[in-house]
Design brief:
271 residues, alpha/beta, 10 helices, binds L-Erythrulose, binds manganese (II) ion
């Protein structure tokens, strides 16, 4: 079954990011549950910035799940990536993501690697950068498997990385790993910039897709841009997608309206 999810950001200093809810955990979880979402995707500063017992309690109280946990704070706050030329930084990136995998696994939730993939930097060959990324994903994919969760890899648009921009490149990358535990994240906002056809790419790489980031062309909640969601929903139904469709969009015009627009679009296209 396709499930709905909405993002919650718990890092207030990242003011301009594409997350729907920005309130403290209890308020955001209660609002998401009341709105009818099946899950929430958490963006936290680190693995130990949320009390897992409090979180467990809130999830039970409001009858909602964690769809995934984001790891991007490792880059944005700590400057870590899996492809930094400095081996010590790469090691710290693996450690940061491993902790996030462990945290998410307590709730059966996979971790997402998006911006932690880093960039090809000046003076370093792309092939070398890919080798570091593959090493990191192999280590982390195998670690996640031991924790009984998948690991999710996300291609990002060219303004966020010069490494993996399209679903096809991401699919080739995960096919080259020594683990089958890594799935792909199809973020509709990034795909609208990079793919020839969002729905065709979904059909081509559907068997690898584990998670969707749900946003319109301008990263506003779905229904406020020009993405043709009907075509995309048909493609997702055709590939028998069974994961979460998670709203990673700006809280436009405000958090509550963005959440409402999102769940209405989800119900319109996927129920
Ligand atoms: C960033 O643009 C994004 O889409 C996130 O999901 C990556 O961590
Ligand atoms: Mn995304």
């Amino acid at each position: 079954m396709i499930k709905s999810s909405v993002t919650i950001n718990l890092v207030p200093q990242l003011k301009t990011g594409p997350w729907i809810y920005w309130d403290p955990l209890e308020i955001s979880i209660s609002k998401a549950a009341e709105m009818g979402f099946d899950g929430v995707e958490l963006f936290t500063a680190s693995a130990n910035s949320v009390d897992p017992y409090l979180l467990e309690n809130l999830l039970q109280r409001f009858g909602i799940s964690i769809s995934a946990v984001g790891t991007g704070a490792g880059k944005v706050i700590k400057g870590l990536t899996l492809t930094d030329p400095d081996a010590e930084i790469r090691k710290q990136a693996i450690s940061f993501i491993s902790d996030m995998i462990s945290f998410g696994s307590r709730f059966g939730a996979p971790a997402i690697i998006g911006s932690m993939q880093g960039n090809v930097v000046s003076g370093i060959e792309k092939a070398q950068t890919i080798t570091w990324l593959v090493e990191g994903l192999n280590t982390l994919g195998n670690f996640a498997e031991k924790k009984d969760v998948t690991l999710i890899f996300e291609s990002l648009n060219r303004y966020e990385t010069n490494l993996i921009n399209r679903l096809e490149d991401a699919a080739k990358l995960i096919a080259s790993l020594n683990t089958h535990n890594v799935t792909l994240l199809a973020d509709l906002f990034h795909m609208n910039i990079e793919e020839k056809s969002i729905q065709d790419s979904i059909r081509s790489f559907g068997s690898s897709i584990g998670h969707i980031h749900f946003a319109d062309s301008n990263r506003r909640p779905v229904g406020n841009g020009h993405i043709q969601m009907k075509d995309i929903s048909e493609a997702l139904k055709e590939i028998e997608f069974k994961g979460y469709i998670s709203a990673e969009a700006f809280p436009w015009p405000d958090q509550d309206s963005a959440a409402k627009a999102t769940i209405e679009s989800f119900n319109k296209y996927f129920c």
